[in-house]
Amino acid sequence: MGDGFTAATPRVALEVLEAYFKAHALHLSDSMIHALSDAEEIIRARYIGLPDSAEERRQHLLSLSSRQFEQIVEHLFDAMGYDTELTPPQRDGGRDIIATRRDAGRQEHIFIECKRYEAKIGVRLVRELVGVVSSSLANKGILVTTSTFTAGAHAFAQRDHRIDLLPGAELVTLINEHLGWDWPARLERLGGHRPFGRLRAARA
Q1: Does residue 154 register a pLDDT over 80?
Q2: Is 0.90 topped by the overall pTM?
Q3: Between the CA of residue 112 and those of 16, 67, 98, what are the distances in Å?
């Protein structure tokens, strides 16, 4: 598909299909319902999933500097509807991004720690994030990495509902979904301005 689709992001396309279905569900034929379902599956397979390309795209993230990786994660959460703030490169207090969102009367205040690693993330970094969240007004911490997590890290995080772990493969899927399929082509502009735009504003 062309630039118009990738600029809108696969998530927007899926939301449009869902809205159309809800608005016309009572009047749609079975064949039309199947066609809408097929279109959704094509979008998910072509622009979001694609397991065969996930590793290649993860390598794009590994080619970034640590700061650039933090920037693209910030762009991602911005596109997901959060107000985001990138903390200073040094003395960041154990969080690289602060993300907030008010939804249905509930305020989310999230600390996001980014690790551009090749090796697995162990339990120590999870414990550190728990400590940062516990000593602040944040109600959640998210540890984001280009790699994966050890079994010990997963077990520790599962004992604390305030902590989420986001490994590289899942991160690639989210970036595909919310920043557009062509995001690797825009990585080189990370240092200058927001190459992924304010997609939340575009949806309004």
Answers
A1: yes
A2: no
A3: 29, 13, 6
Closest CA to 13 of 37, 43, 57, 48: 43
Quote the pLDDT of residue 64.
92
CB 36 within 8 A of CB 21: yes
Nearest to 115 by CA among 100, 99, 130, 126: 126
Residue 203 confidence (pLDDT) above 60: no
Contact 96, 200 (CB under 8 A): no
Compute the CA torsion angle 74, 156, 147, 183 (nearest 10 deg).
-30
Q: What 8-state DSSP symbol labels residue 86?
A: E
Q: In terms of C-beta density within 10 A (0-12 exposed, 13-18 middle, 19 or more buried), how is residue 99 classed?
A: buried
More confidently predicted of 114 and 9: 114
According to DSSP, the β-strands at 163-166 and 140-145 are parallel
Q: What is the largest CA-CA distance in the chain?
A: 59
Tokens at residue 39, please?
């279109």
* Residue 51, amino acid: P
Phi-psi region of 81 (alpha: psi -120 to 50; beta: other; left: phi over 0): left
Choose among 137, 146, 181: nearest CA to 165.
Answer: 146
